[in-house]
Write a structure and sequence with these properties.
Elements: E1 2-3, H1 14-26, H2 36-57, E2 65-70, H3 73-85, E3 94-98, H4 103-114, E4 118-122, H5 130-137, E5 142-148, H6 160-170, E6 175-179, E7 193-197, E8 208-213, H7 238-250, H8 255-270, E9 275-277, E10 287-292, H9 297-306, E11 309-310, H10 325-328, H11 333-337, E12 339-343, H12 350-368
Parallel strand pairs: 1-11, 3-4, 3-5, 5-6, 6-7
Antiparallel strand pairs: 2-8, 7-8, 9-10, 10-12
Helix pairs in contact: 1-7, 2-7, 3-4, 5-6, 8-12
Bound molecules: pyridoxal-5'-phosphate.
Pyridoxal-5'-phosphate binds at residues 72-74, 102, 104, 148, 152, 179, 181-182, 197, 208, 315, 317.
Length: 369
């Protein structure tokens, strides 16, 4: 098997699998219980929060704030947006976002629009300096800015620390939410609210986190037993949290290696005819989107699958449905129909990419015959 669909999900690493099993075996207590098994679980959760916080901060001074665990980034995004915007009701305001957001942000913003907020969605294709364009769109009425750090379909990235710094300079009251699912452990981050997901970094599905900067107060969207400071009720899945902690500590992704692999793939693709590259220099190197003109994405996907090569035709979440995201990133409709997304992890090799290109070549020949 050659797995090149790591932006959809990653294989849980051995460290994660071991931590999940060990925790299920020996630290299965309810973190709210007052006995030792409960306090052991609580300690595991506190340690994991420290790990995520320091990983979010990267090499610079630690971000000042707290982590809550969620069921994944869909919940983190919903909690961040709905939880923060409760504070602004019933006074509508302006929201600045992008035309390339994941549905968990995009659909929540539609809800705000229905409630009377004005939502401005900028498309990267319309701006040379997209980070600057987002800053420019913020004014004294902007209650919220929500933007993804790295796009899941092409790897297009924004300069998040600059965005945060400049938005705060312009309007310190604007809440900045960053969907960092594809950027976590890959690009520098900052924000008032930052969403991440475990299964994109070799932890299991069903676990995510939301960073809340000190001074920000969001209202919970999940009501119940008051766990996690009342911000996210529900018994904490301590085993998944332990696995997330272990996966983040063991994370191996390395920009230099990804850049080498991307360059190798682009060289090999250049040997083929009718290829359009949709991931330029403004994209992270671990996501490479390209169009094989004349071969529809689904045909290519299934042909590659015959040889055990797994890629994506777009984001797994859109399940083959045409999303407007590639268009907003400047890809023509025709090229979007033939788009293939290769997304890498640290285990991928140049030989695997050679096998991919060889099979693409054979598929092109078969389809054109
Ligand atoms: N945001 C982005 C950018 C994503 O790529 C995804 C998943 O693909 C999500 C949010 C949702 O994450 P989860 O699957 O953890 O709910």
């Amino acid at each position: 098997m050659i797995y090149l669909d790591n932006a959809a999900t990653t294989k849980p690493c051995e460290e994660c699998r071991r931590a999940v099993c060990d925790t299920m075996e020996s630290a299965f207590g309810n973190a709210s219980s007052l006995h030792k098994l409960g306090t052991d679980s609580l300690q595991i959760i506190s340690r994991a929060k420290r790990t995520i916080l320091s990983a979010l901060s990267g090499a610079k001074t630690p971000l000042d704030g707290m982590i809550i665990f969620t069921s994944g980034a869909t919940e983190s995004n919903n909690t961040a947006l709905l939880g923060a915007m409760h504070r602004f009701r019933p006074h509508a305001g302006k929201i600045v976002s992008t035309a390339i957001e994941h549905p968990s942000v995009a659909k929540t913003l539609i809800r705000f629009e229905e409630d009377g907020f004005e939502v401005l969605r900028l498309a990267p294709k319309d701006f040379e300096d997209f980070t600057g364009a987002l800053v420019n769109a913020v004014d004294e009425n902007t209650a919220l800015l929500s933007a993804m750090a790295v796009n899941n379909e092409t790897g297009f990235k924004i300069d998040v620390p600059r965005l945060y710094r400049e938005v705060k300079r312009k309007n310190p009251k604007t809440i900045v939410h960053i969907d960092a699912v594809q950027g976590f452990l890959k690009v520098p981050l900052d924000g008032d609210l930052i969403s991440v997901s475990g299964h994109k970094v070799h932890a299991s599905k069903g676990i995510g986190a939301l960073f809340i900067k000190k001074g920000q107060n969001i209202l919970p969207i999940m009501l119940g037993g008051g766990q996690q400071g009342g911000l996210r009720s529900g018994t904490e899945p301590v085993e998944l949290i332990a696995g997330f902690d272990a996966a983040v500590k063991a994370y191996q992704g390395d920009t230099a290696k990804f850049a080498e692999l991307k360059a190798h793939l682009l060289d090999r693709l250049a040997e083929l005819e009718n290829i359009g590259i949709n991931s330029g220099a403004d994209c992270v190197p671990n996501i490479i989107n390209f169009s094989v003109r004349g071969v529809r994405s689904e045909i290519m996907l299934h042909s590659l699958e015959e040889d055990g090569i797994y890629v994506s035709s777009g984001s797994a979440c859109s399940k083959g449905k045409k999303s407007g995201v590639l268009g907003a990133l400047g890809v023509s409709d025709k090229d979007a129909d033939c788009a293939v997304r290769v997304s890498l992890c640290a285990d991928n090799t140049a030989e695997e990419l050679d096998a991919l290109c060889e099979k693409i070549k054979r598929t092109i020949e078969r389809v054109r015959r």
